[in-house]
Each structure stands twice: as C-alpha cells, then as structure tokens.
Amino acid sequence: MTHIWKATARMVVVGALVGAVALIGPFSTSAYAEPGEPSQRAAAGAESIVDVIPAETLNRMVAQIPLVDAANVIRTAVEDTSSPGYTGIGLVDDHVTLWWKGTLPADIAAAVATVHRTVPVEVARSTYSRADLEKAAAKLAPVVEADPADAAHAVTLRTDGAGIEVAVDDTAGAALPKLPTTGVRTTIVERDRLAPISRNADSAPYDGGAYISPGGGAYCTAGFGVRDASSDATHLLSAGHCGSLGQVWSTGAGTPIGSVTHRNADHDTMLISTPTPGDHIYVGGVSDEVRAEVVGWTEVFPGQFLCQSGVTSAGVLGGPICDLRVEFHYDDREELVEATQLNGEQAARQGDSGGPVYAVNADGTVLAAGTTTRFAGPGFGFQDFATARDDFGDLVPATAIPANCRISYAVTDSWGTGFSASVTVYNDGPAVNGWSLGWTFPSGQLIQGHWNGVFQQTGSAVTVANENYNAGIPTGGAVSFGFTANGSPVAPAPFTLNGTVCN
C-alpha cells in the first residue's frame, strides 16, 4: 500500500555513494568494540541523548519540530482531498515547501494558512504533479528492474515535480537500458547502489538499539518496541533481511526474546514477538546505559535531520550517528528512504541493520522514524516507520503511556509578560470526528488569544474543541491550533484527547 505522501523524491542531487558493503554477518572485532574498550567518542558520565550528540546537531533537529508538525498537518489535508495537483512536501532551510501543479484547492489553502501562523510555508508551482510522475515511473520501473546486471537500478520522483531521475552505477561494461518515452522530463544520475547492512546483553523489557542474534555468530540491532494499537499485540521491530519467519532471536547474553512472526521482504521489515517491548532506545556506547525515551513516531520528509543508533557504530563511536538528512523516498517495490550523512562520515556499519532511526526532541525524548537497512559511505538507507504500519497494521511505538494520541507542543515566541505556542494533535487510533483537548497550566497562565480551535478556560484548566472545519482527524493524521498566553512559557502535561491521556 503506497500513500501519496510516502513516495517523496529527493530535493537535492548528491554525489555518488561509495563503499557499499553487506552489513549483516558474523561478529567482527574490527568493526565492533568490546565492552570496556576505548571509543572515539566516549559517553562517560552521559545521562541522556542530549549529552552524547553535539549541541549544534540537537539544536538543528529541535528547530525542525514545528516544521515537521506543519508538514504533517498539510499532509493530512492532502490525503483527504481528491485534487490531482499535489506534487510533494519538504523541509527547506527554515520553512516548509508545498509543491503543487495548478491552482491550490480551497481546503489545502486553508491548511497552509493554518500552519503559516506558526512557521513559514511556501507554495511552489511544479511542472508535473505526483500523479504525472507516478504514471511515468510506472512505465520506467519495469524496464529498469528487468535486468539487474545493467547500469540502471532505481527510479526516483523529484519532490519538486521537476521530473524523474533514473539512478545508474558505474559498473564496468554495464549498459543503460533503452528507456520508454513518458512525456515527463527524465534525468540520468550516477549513484551507487545501497547495500544491505546491534548493545550486548539487554534484558526485558527489550529496548531498541540492543544487540540481538539468531545464533551462529550473526547479529543485528533491535529497532523499537512496538504494539498493535488494535490488538495490543507487542513486538520488537527490526530489519527483514536479518532473519526468517519462525526464527528465534536472543540477546547478547543468550536470553530468548521471541520468534519472528511477521516479515515483509520487499520492505525489509520484521516483527519479533515479545510480551515485554521496551519504551526506550540505547543511544550511548556499548558498555553504558545511556538511553532515550520513545514518545511516539514521525513521518519523514525531505530535508529532515535524523539519527541512528546501531550496535556496531555505537561500539566504534560511543554514541549515535546524527546529521542524517533525508533526501528522497524510492517509489518502487522496496520504498526505501535515503539520507546523507552531512559530514561525510560512514553512515552505518555491519550489524547496525534493524537499528532505530529517530528524531530528537528538545527534552531528550525521541520519535521513531524507521529502521536501518543499508549504507554506502555517507549514504544511508532506512525503512520509515509508516511503512511498517502499512505492512503490519496499526503499529505504534511502545511508550510509557500506551496512548493512541501524541501532542507536539512548541513555544514559538516569548516576551517579558507572555508567550505564544503551537499545538499539534497526532491521532494513532481510529479516525476521530469531533475532538476536545484538555490540559492544566502549572502556574496560572491565562489564554489571551487563539486560533483554529474553540477555547474554554476555568482557572488553570484549558479545553480546546474543534472548529467545524477541522473536526476530523484520520488515523495517522494531525491537526494543529495555537494561542497566546500571559506568564512564563511552559509545556503543560498531561494532555487528554476526548478524555484519554496522550503522549
């Protein structure tokens, strides 16, 4: 199942990826540091992920949170429209760009206006719509995939609607296949193929980023503890190429975790059944206990910055690999997301497969973005969390509060006597038609102005109900509203959506 928002294309052409290697295999001491060995970036004394990634990197990721929230609100509106003009959404520097062919429909324009109160949004005209590109790609893809020995290996759709890119490698003697005419601008780009790519002795509840093994010396990395919001079945999410259905996986200490109950080979995802999934991920080295709490999941957009915490890289570096900028989403059978490590560092290592890919919040909590699949030098391939949801049902990360909703609360401005905030409501449960969000301010703050919601305040207790035009929140969708208030900026908790506590 492919959603229009999942097939995003690259925004910028990056250089060819080099050094592609197979990243699942036997334990290698040259690539994996034993506990107690020195690492290049020690995490001694670290307490959370904010202690093990550079401040500049953290600030860059946190600054994107309002942009990602805004992109999700627009995406929700796009998914709810039948208009054929949509092309793509991306994060560009300090703003969100929506590419559209033709006239912007009124409902999409309203969604843009809603989020534009919080973050800058640019609506850019595109040459081709998403539908145009997908129609052309449907003609190109069978030709590109027909002969694995020729130079062509991928078809990607540009997020900006400028056309299609056919990726080729420089294998000696490999020829370019004869491509059919599509009526859409097609560009040949040189890019090497990404090749497929674990904490030592985790114990229940099993957290992401831990060493997991099917025996025989092979190992991978746990991605995230997850649960099915419909059935409450619980699992560990990891990479499909690591194992096979029915295979039993264990920790580095040999403690059985569970067996593989679900696997999608095309999307490189698998679920290991366990009654005790963890709600944290390891983010430090292999011999420390530095972890981050997982509070939800996020869509991924071109331009977004993410981190990965594979076992082998943790042994070498003593912490995560960050500054992974999302470039594009393949529109093919695998639906792989590709990113680039901006500093030219090796993006992953053997044994990182299946490990957590995530966004970092200002408070050190994280959002599940996907699981590691491949790398080629600074090039990085992963499967996004939304793909796992499509594959295996209404999956959500295992969280301390097993909620089907998440709130993103961002203070967007402050002054001596007050502040403004933007609130985005994410729905992981059944579709909602009519909502009410409640919270209590901790220090008597009073709402002064507001937009996109019906506000009521009694003392410190605030309730915000929907307007007529934003009453619906589909499964996986988002809506937002904002307000100004007096007093000091705060992030109140808990939030309740229709009486249910949210993360």
Mean pLDDT: 85
CA-CA gap between termini: 27 Å
Unreliable segments (pLDDT under 50, ≥5 consecutive)? 1-44
- What's the tally of helices? 6
Number of domains: 2
Strand arrangement within the widest β-sheet reads 1-11-10-14-15-16-13-12-25
Task: Determine the fraction of residues in helical runs and give it as a percent range.
Answer: 10-25%
The count of strands amounts to 36
Q: Indicate the radius of gyration in whole angstroms.
A: 22 Å
Give the strand content: 35-45%
Main sheet summary: 9 strands, antiparallel
> From the helix content, strand content and strand pairing, which structural class follows?
mainly beta
- Overall outline: globular
Description:
The chain has 503 residues and is mostly beta strands. The chain starts with 24 loop residues before the first strand and ends with a strand. The model is unreliable at 1-44 (pLDDT under 50). The chain has six helices and 36 strands. The protein has two domains: 1-402, no CATH class; 405-502, Immunoglobulin-like (Sandwich), CATH 2.60.40. α2 (65-79) packs antiparallel against α3 (106-116). Helix content is 13%, strand content 39%. The strands form seven sheets. It has a nine-stranded antiparallel sheet, covered by helices on one side. Strands 19-20-21-24-23-22 form a six-stranded antiparallel barrel. The chain has a five-stranded antiparallel sheet with strand order 31-32-29-35-36, with no helix packed on it. The relative contact order is 0.16. The longest helix is centred in the first third of the chain and has 17 residues, at 130-146.
